[in-house]
Design goal:
With 317 residues, this protein is mainly alpha-helical. The protein has 13 helices and six strands. Helices cover 62% and strands 6% of the residues.
């Protein structure tokens, strides 16, 4: 789950997303409309299906490989839909729509400029202090470093708090248990996805296989074990670099520990992908082929780029 998919290095999984209209999937749009009404916010203008574990909401223009979408866009992971119950789907939708309700995803140009101004000012001050002679430099260095630290922690705290608030909204709509099992499945799919796609995407696409279903099937296999995967509870990033809370922290905020949430995730037997989409396998294969072509194209483009100035300098020296 993520509320900020649009950035300069737009992920290939999002670039190759498929738009889903109300006429194509009325059963999937129904809980979206119902959750939006429960939250007291407008529903999305666009619905996209992506293959990765990522789901997102944004109000920024979203440029895909063959179209541009504006307005409020909700993106849902088809891979994750294979594993979710309807309550877990409602929790996912509520989490993302709460970001829209609170304008977390709306362009904040003035706030961004102010943040950038403060960061640049602190950097200039730090450089100036470093150039001062001792003992003045030694005297001023600690408060400047403290200012940097407090600024960075404040920015991080704001980003983390958005996720906790969105989870609380989701728990009010779908229940804390659905949120807890959703977190487990999202994390598990993300880990499996990164392994399978990096190593097997082109082969799967060449065989016209649905890679989302392959990832989901792998996750279901792991759920047959009553013990939690030993690597599941380890954070991928240091605390200082995280823009999202670690999912164990999110579980704790919901009142669940890892083993209990794992047991909840194991209990789901239904699949909203099969209940709410007419032909999820066909969509999956289409998305798999689009993603494989986009990654192959990106790889080809990078291999034909001329060496950078620094590379030429290093070679010449």
């Amino acid at each position: 789950m993520s509320s900020e998919p649009t950035r300069a290095d737009l992920r290939h999984e999002i670039e190759t997303a498929l738009p889903i209209t109300r006429a194509q999937a009325p059963a999937l749009w129904r809980p979206i409309d119902e959750v939006a009404e429960q939250l007291g916010t407008a529903g999305p203008d666009n619905l996209l299906l992506v293959l990765d574990s990522i789901s997102f909401a944004t109000e920024l223009p979203l440029r895909l490989s063959d179209a541009t979408f504006t307005g409020r866009t909700l993106g849902l992971s088809l891979t994750l839909l294979y594993l979710l119950s309807e309550q877990e789907l409602r929790a996912l939708i509520a989490h993302e729509l709460d970001h829209l309700r609170r304008h977390d995803t709306r362009p904040q140009r003035l706030a961004s400029l102010l943040t950038e101004f403060i960061a640049i000012t602190l950097a200039i001050v730090a450089i100036g202090v470093a150039r001062l002679p001792d003992p003045l430099s030694a005297l001023l260095r600690p408060p400047v470093q403290s200012g940097f630290t407090r600024f960075a922690r404040g920015q991080q705290a704001r980003m983390l708090d958005r996720e906790f608030r969105a989870d609380r909204a989701a728990a009010e709509i779908a229940g804390a248990a659905a949120c807890a099992s959703l977190l487990i499945k999202s994390t598990l799919v993300a880990r499996i996805w990164s392994i399978i796609v990096d190593k097997h995407l082109q082969n799967v696409a060449a065989g016209a296989l649905p890679i989302g279903a392959v990832v989901a099937m792998t996750a279901r296999t792991l759920f047959t074990d009553s013990d939690v995967c030993p690597w599941l509870g380890k954070p991928e990033q240091s605390v200082a670099r995280r823009a999202h809370p670690h999912y164990v922290e999110l579980l704790a905020a919901l009142g669940y520990d890892l083993p209990t949430a794992w047991a909840l995730a194991q209990s789901t037997k239904t699949s909203v992908a099969r209940l709410m989409l007419e032909n999820p396998k066909a969509l999956d294969i289409q998305l798999t082929e689009r993603l494989a072509r986009r990654r192959a194209s990106a790889s080809s483009e990078s291999s034909t780029l001329p060496p950078s100035t620094s590379d030429r300098h290093d070679a010449a020296s």
